[in-house]
Design goal:
The chain is of the alpha/beta class. It is built from 14 helices and twelve strands. The structure holds calcium ion.
Length: about 325
Amino acid sequence: MKQPAVSIAALLLLWASFSYSSTVPKIIFDTDMTGDCDDCGALAVLHALADRGEVEVLGCIASYGANPYVAGCIDAINTWYGRGTLPIGAEQADYGRTESHYLKAIATNRARYGHDVATNADVPGHVTVYRQLLSEQPDGSVTIVTVGRMKALCDLLASPPDAVSTLDGMALVKQKAVQWVCMGGRYPNSEGKGEANFKTHGGAGYSRTAVETWPLPAVFLGYEIGARIMTGHLLLKLSEDTPVARAYQLYLGAIKKDARESWDQTAVLYAVRGVGPWWTLVTTGHNHVDAEGVNAWRPEPDREHAYAVEARPPEEVAGLIESLMTQPPKARGE
Ligand SMILES: [Ca+2]
């Protein structure tokens, strides 16, 4: 009697692991990694959750061409986590905003980080990669996470049919994506304050277009959520052989702080684990964005928009994010 019982248990475990792996979110990570370090922290959280079997990372998009070394830094981080072959697409145009406290130091140090991409010119364009990643996936399966300006997302939505897919960008998104999770804006923002991803550096038109035309559910993690979650202090203690730690060391050293707000990490955490105990969602109404890129939540008409509201103390979420950002990569066997 013992033998069959063990086999059934093993079969159940196998079935559970199969059904689990087939239902984890599939994520494209769209980042403007340049002027702040929370993009690196968000990518670390994404890899840590992938190491735990909670998410499949499809690829990364470097949006807005803010700095030539975005793709190189992304590749250094992906390589550190054993995912150096993940596709990266990058905006090839140079918009001239090149300052970053950490990008070049990490992207060009291939001897230390073992990656093979140095600059955005070493990878295909953002639209090509976006379209490729989407077209390869089952219908209704992809979550797009943006933690920067929405230039690349707008370019995807406006893209014509090509060799990758006979569908235009809007039809491709409708067929393959399931939701958009966006770090951006403020909620409900009746006072009309601006937020960087929506408003600055030419982003205004893009945020308005993206929010108005995105054809599926969209969830927004606002400025006010991540602004209260301070993380990074444990990364300061890690070796500079860890690229995410190095980014934080260089960035926090430059601004003379020992931790940073965690805006971008909240979008990744939500996209993988949902509201959890940390947030509730306001789902009635819609996110309105004006011509200047300033958003406000309007109670009507209702659209498929939602925004997160803090439900747990920020210190608790900070502890979780910090532990994920410092979780040793599974691929390194540490
Ligand atoms: Ca960002």
